[in-house]
Amino acid sequence: MSATLENNFPQIGNIQNLLSTFLAKTSYSQLVVLCDENTHQYCLPLIKNILPENTLIAKIPAGEVSKNIETCQLVWEQMLQKNCDRNACVLNLGGGVVGDLGGFVAAVYKRGIDFVQIPTSLLAQVDASVGGKTGIDFQGAKNILGSFAQPQKVLIDVAFLQTLPLRHLYNAWFEMLKHALIADAAYWQELTNQRPEDIADWTSLIEQSIAIKYEVVRLDPLEKSWRKILNFGHTVGHAVESWALQQQMDILHGEAVGIGMIAELYLSHKLLHFSEEKMWTCAKQIKKYLPKIILQPQSFTEILHWSMYDKKNAQGEIMAALITDIGKAQPQCVVCAVDFEAALVFYNKVIQYE
Amino acid sequence: MSATLENNFPQIGNIQNLLSTFLAKTSYSQLVVLCDENTHQYCLPLIKNILPENTLIAKIPAGEVSKNIETCQLVWEQMLQKNCDRNACVLNLGGGVVGDLGGFVAAVYKRGIDFVQIPTSLLAQVDASVGGKTGIDFQGAKNILGSFAQPQKVLIDVAFLQTLPLRHLYNAWFEMLKHALIADAAYWQELTNQRPEDIADWTSLIEQSIAIKYEVVRLDPLEKSWRKILNFGHTVGHAVESWALQQQMDILHGEAVGIGMIAELYLSHKLLHFSEEKMWTCAKQIKKYLPKIILQPQSFTEILHWSMYDKKNAQGEIMAALITDIGKAQPQCVVCAVDFEAALVFYNKVIQYE
User: Fold this and answer.
1) ipTM more than 0.90?
2) What is the tens place of the pLDDT at every residue in B171-217?
3) Which terminus in chain A has less CB density within 10 A, N or C?
4) Which strands make up the sheet holding B114-119, listed edge to edge?
5) What would the pLDDT profile of B147-164 be if each residue is shown by its tens digit?
6) For B36-87, what is each residue's pLDDT tens digit?
7) Contact residues, chain A, for B138 at CB < 8 Å
8) Which bin fits A248, alpha (ψ -120 to 50), beta or left (φ > 0)?
C-alpha cells in the first residue's frame, strides 16, 4: 500500500545507517532490490551486508530503453516465483529509470505493495525521488503508463555520486536550475555562482532542490494545476527528447530539459512579458552545460508533432509552464505552433552564440 | 483521475437515459468503449446511437483468457493512436473481465483517466461494479496486477440480463448468497425462498446486494481489514478456480466461489463454532445451483498449493473470511493445511449428497 507524502521528506545521510534504521522498524515478508547493471556493480555492494539473505535481487538492463512493460513483466515474474505477498517491499536502487519503473512495478503488484526509493544518480536524488510519480514508456512515448504512488521512504546518500561522470552531474544541474527558476531567486544566484565540477559536498544543494519540489507536490499531489509548474522546460524538452531518442541521438533527460528551458524562456518572454535581458542571462547560464545540439529547421515539424503526444496537453492544445520572473512560475499557458517554432529558433540562436 | 466512492452508488435504470444524462454533464475529449465479442454484438447496439461519432470502440476476445497484460497493450495502443489525452474516458461495457481489465487500462493510462462501468452480466452488476478494484491475471494467477481506482459512475440496466444464459444467472447467485451470508440474514431468507430462473425483475435484489457490498467497501476501501469479509468463499474458491483453469476445466468464477463457500462453511463451523445444523442447511442451498464437480483427494495438495499464491495471505499463512452466524462475518482467520483439506472433504460430501 502506498504511503502519503506528508511527513515523508527524503532522508539524506549514510545509506547503511538510513537503510538499517528503516529495516529495523519494519517487518517485511520479502525484500526485493531492483537495480540495473551499473548500480548492481557500484551501489549494491554498499548495502548488501545489511540485507537479509533471502533478498531477491532483480537486475534490469541500464538505460531508458528498458523502461518498458516487458521489463516490468520480468520483474513481476521473479517476484511471483519468490512468492512475494502483499507484505513484500521493493527497494529501488538506481537512477530515474529504476525508480520510475520499480515504483510502477510495486504500485501495481497485487494492487500495490510498499517500495523505497534509493536514488543513486544526482538527477534522481533532486528530482525523481520526490513526487510519487511512477511510470514506464510505451511505444516510444515517455511515461505513458504509470500511477501516482508514494514510496514509504526516500533514502539519499551523496556517496553514490562519486562514481557519476561529469555529464551526469550536468544532467541533474538543469533540473536544479529549473527548481530555482520556478521558485527561488536566491537559489538561482547560489547555483549560478558555482560550477557542478567544483562542488565538494552536494548535501545542501540537494536539500534545497528537494525542498522546492516537495512543497510544490505537497500543495497539489495529483497535478491538478499548481504542480504543473515543475514542467517548466518540459513541454519543449519532452518533445525534443522523444524526437531525439527516435533519431537514436545520444541525449540525456536533463539535457533535453536544458534545451526546453531555453526555448521556454523565450515563450515566457513572448507570452508573459518575462524581461528580455533576464531571458538572455538565464539562457546563457543554461547553455554553459549543454552539448552543442543544433535543431535543424526541417525537424521543427516533427518536434512539434511529438509535443502533441504530451500528457500535459488538453483538448489538442499545447500547454506549458512558464515564468514571469526568476523564481515565479505560471502553471498552464497555451502555446501556439508558431510560437513553439519561434522558441526553437531562439534556442538555436543561443546555442550558436559564442 | 479516479473518483471517490462516496455519493457514487451505482445507478440502476434504462442505460440510454443513464448514459446520456452522464455524457451531457461531462465534456470528455475522447470516449473509448471497451467491449468483448459478445457485448459488441448484444449490448453495444443499445447505446451506439448516443455515442459521439468519433468514439473509439475497442473490442477484446471474450473470457478470462484475455484478461492479461497483452490485451491491455492492444487497447493502450489504440488509445495512443487515437491520441487520447488525460481528458479521455473509458466506458467498460461488459462483464467482470471487461470491467476489471478496462478499469486497469484506464487507471494506468497517463497515470489515470476517468472510466465508467456498465456491467452487463448479473455477476458484474452485483459484484464487480462496486469496490474500485481493477486487475488482470498474470502467469495464470488471478488478479495479480491491478490497482484501486473508483469509476466515475456505475450504470446498470437489467435489460442486459435478458440475453444471459441460466448458468450465468447462477454464477451471480452464488455471490448474492455470499452477500447475504456475511451481512444480512433477512436477505438470505429472501434469496433462498426463490429460484433465479423464476425472477422477473432483478432490480430490487441487485440493489440489496450492491448496498451490502457498497457499505463494506465504504468502511474500508483499501481492504486493510473489514472489507476482507467479502472474501468469504474466496480463499478455497480462488484456489479451486486457479487449479481448475490450469486443468482447462470449464468452471465459472461464481461456481468456484460456490464450492469455496461450502468448504468455508465447514471452516466456519470448525474454527468459529458456526452451528452444524446451519452449516448443512446453507451448504445444501448453495449446492442446488452447482454443477456436480467432485474434487479428487489426489488433487487436494495442488489446490492447497494454489491457495498459497492468494493475495489475501500474509507471512505464508492461509487466511480466510469466515462466518459465525448467517449474516455475521469475521474478516481474517488463519486456516491450517489440515483444516483446508478437511473442508474439501466436507464439500465432496455435500456435493454427492442426494
Assistant:
1) no
2) 999 999 999 999 999 999 999 999 999 999 999 999 999 999 999 99
3) C
4) B11-12, B153-156, B114-119, B88-94, B30-36, B56-60
5) 999 999 999 999 999 888
6) 999 999 999 999 999 999 999 999 999 888 999 999 999 999 999 999 999 9
7) 73, 76, 80
8) left
- Other C-beta atoms within 10 Å of A11: how many? 16
Q: Name the residue facing B139 among A77, A143, A144 (closest C-beta).
A: A77
Give the H/E segment covering residue B333: strand B328-335
Q: What is the pTM of this model?
A: 0.88
DSSP state letters, A172-225: HHHHHHHHHHHH-HHHHHHHHTS-GGG-S--HHHHHHHHHHHHHHHHH-TT-SS
Beta bridge partners of B150: B3
Distance CA B174, CA B195 (A): 12
Q: Which domains does chain A have, with CATH numbers?
A: 11-163 (3.40.50.1970), 168-352 (1.20.1090.10)
- DSSP single-letter state for residue B9: P
* Amino acid occupying residue A206: I
Q: Do A147 and B107 touch (CB under 8 A)?
A: yes
Contact B314 A110 (CB under 8 A): no
Of B85, B87, B111, the CB nearest to A146: B111
| B53 catalytic per annotation | no
